[in-house]
């Protein structure tokens, strides 16, 4: 399923195949806001979804820095309300907002809101290898990457990103804009408040809460509630500062 390749003829062939399928099927159009980095991870997931079940016609990216195609997809314009409003006129166009900055995520929120995209026009993307309980609730504009496991009675909000191989225990609540890096392990009934960030390989005890826009570093082991905006590291996790400083 994975194509770890720079072989452009292969990518071209895939796109032609997809374009042909899209003609026959009623697929939704998608624009990824972002680019190299997280945007291309999302692009990969979209392609894997399409291979399994043609769902999205990926039109391209919105990006403030790049003008050349990104992995063969055009850059359609800058990330601004005027560009977005042009595409919003087509009711079949959906968006995915992929911009992330570990310690400054809350500062990106204004940029997202300025675009004035109605919540229902954000795509929710779930990789075909993810295992999601049918009792989980998932919001708009959320992306769940390969081999993630999401337990029953979890509530995952809008614009949440869960990266490869992470585990979300039963009853967990992941509020809007929270972020779970790859291989992180969220215990049962844990609460990630708005924008909380859990780093690669970090683990949490059940029932703890991670404060708003807090950042918990790679490999941390969280045993107690994390304050809002706190920067946490280590085992057991301790606060080394604040992302709001
Ligand atoms: C927690 C984190 C945000 C701190 O970043 P920072 O503010 O730039 O911190 P610094 O690198 O200046 O380190 C500050 C101190 O904390 C220590 N530290 C930083 N991250 C640590 C971690 N994850 N575990 C243990 N100690 C850590 C540093 O060694 C340093 O200690 P010192 O003062 O004794 O030298 C960052 O290290 C981190 O883990 N980010 C998550 C990355 C991630 O998950 N990426 C996934 C997507 S690829």
TrEMBL record:
Any Pfam family matching the protein: PglD_N
Chain ranges of the PglD N-terminal domain: 29-82
Entry-linked InterPro entries: AcTrfase_PglD-like, PglD_N, Trans_hexapeptide_repeat, Trimer_LpxA-like_sf
Stored CDD domains: LbH_AT_putative (cd03360)
Similarity remark: Belongs to the transferase hexapeptide repeat family.
The protein, known as: PglD N-terminal domain-containing protein
């Amino acid at each position: 399923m994975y194509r770890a390749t720079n072989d452009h003829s292969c990518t071209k062939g895939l796109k032609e195949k997809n374009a042909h399928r899209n003609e026959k099927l009623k697929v939704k159009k998608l624009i990824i806001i972002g680019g190299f980095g997280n945007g291309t991870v999302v692009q990969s997931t979209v392609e894997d979804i399409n291979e399994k079940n043609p769902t999205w016609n990926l039109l391209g990216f919105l990006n403030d820095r790049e003008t050349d195609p990104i992995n063969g997809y055009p850059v359609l314009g800058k990330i601004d309300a005027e560009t977005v409003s042009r595409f919003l006129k087509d009711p079949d166009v959906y968006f995915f907002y992929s911009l992330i900055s570990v310690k400054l995520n809350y500062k990106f929120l204004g940029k997202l809101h300025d675009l004035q995209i109605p919540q229902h026009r954000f795509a929710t993307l779930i990789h075909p290898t993810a295992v999601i309980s049918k009792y989980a609730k998932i919001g708009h504009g959320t992306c769940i990457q390969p081999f993630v496991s999401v337990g029953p009675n979890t509530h995952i909000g809008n614009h949440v990103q869960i990266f490869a191989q992470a585990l979300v225990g039963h009853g967990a609540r992941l509020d809007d804009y929270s972020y779970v890096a790859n291989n992180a392990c969220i215990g049962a009934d844990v609460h990630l408040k708005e924008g909380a960030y859990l780093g690669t390989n970090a683990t949490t005890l059940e029932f703890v809460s991670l404060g708003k826009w807090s950042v918990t570093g790679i490999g941390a082991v969280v045993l107690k509630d994390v304050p809002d905006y706190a920067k946490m590291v280590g085992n057991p996790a301790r606060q080394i500062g604040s992302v709001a400083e």
